[in-house]
Amino acid sequence: MAGQAMPGDLSLSEFDYELPQALIAQRPLVDRAASRLLHLAGSTLTDLHFADLPGLLEAGDLLLLNDTRVIKARLFGSKPSGGRVEALIERVLAPRTALALLRTSHSPRSGQRIDFAGAQALVTGRSEDLFELQFDCDVLPLLARIGQVPLPPYIGHPPDAQDEARYQTVYARCDGAVAAPTAGLHLTQALLERLRARGVATAFVTLHVGAGTFAPVRSERVADHVMHAERYQVGEATARAVNATRAAGGRVLAVGTTALRAIESAAREGIVYAAGGETRLLIVPGHWFQVVDRLVTNFHLPRSTLLMLVCAFAGLEPVKRAYRHAIDHGYRFYSYGDAMLAECVG
Prior knowledge:
Elements: E1 36-41, E2 44-49, E3 62-66, E4 68-70, E5 74-78, E6 84-94, E7 97-104, E8 113-116, E9 119-127, E10 130-135, H1 139-146, H2 161-166, E11 174-177, H3 189-197, E12 201-207, E13 230-234, H4 236-247, E14 252-255, H5 257-265, E15 267-268, E16 271-272, E17 275-279, E18 294-298, H6 305-314, H7 316-328, E19 339-343
Parallel strand pairs: 1-19, 3-12, 3-14, 4-11, 14-18
Antiparallel strand pairs: 1-2, 5-6, 6-7, 7-10, 8-9, 9-10, 12-13, 13-17, 15-16, 18-19
């Protein structure tokens, strides 16, 4: 694919840093837009608030949003033997069929039955780390009835009503994610209206964030890492909007790494085409960014592919400096934390 680079000399340790536990945000702020915003532009760092974002954009710019919606993907059940099972529904393949990560004392075998609060599922196969489950009822209504919000592992409380409302963007509309596109959690309808009033256009992509977003990178040599597959869709209207913005000299601002990965997956030689399917696009330093000029993103886990992407976008050393600044100045990290606006160095 045009734009993708895989430098063989990058090591995982280059993307490591120490984070005080106290800076991992456990709850969202009362006001989404009250989060802090660190603006990284080359060697310059500026401390702002997310509500300042409209003042950093101009008429003719385009805001690119991921409209995926988080499903209540975590189920708890048991085997006939009484052993406990925790399932994270990664993907619904058909009304009664799903792929899931399963946590249990012993790896389930094909033909294993699992009871989820009276609903029965049969293990019918396996694909890498995921098990195929055949349910005796439709999966999505079951999740809506007994599922839990799949909060990230670094959030220490069980999901509650606040999480059901706030671990979701205000523009979410396409069911399918098992993790929120967290950069978008800062946007409110009022803030989107302010952006529209400035002449900033909005376009949507869909990338259903998978459980692999939290999977650790196990290979010290970054080029050896195999990216998890995620479903994405870029429609005709969005392709036209992005191409028209660039042709007119406007800037494209992706809200979140998922929006950026989706649009990069649909681009060829700097032109965006309507596209969809699965993407395994791994973005690391050396990648040529084809259509995105600016990126809003939260602060990510060390040694993660998300941090690698941000380093590719804004520069490895500038991002390291920005993270040190954020830690020194008490920024809140990860899903419910603060945000950064990064300018592309490419």
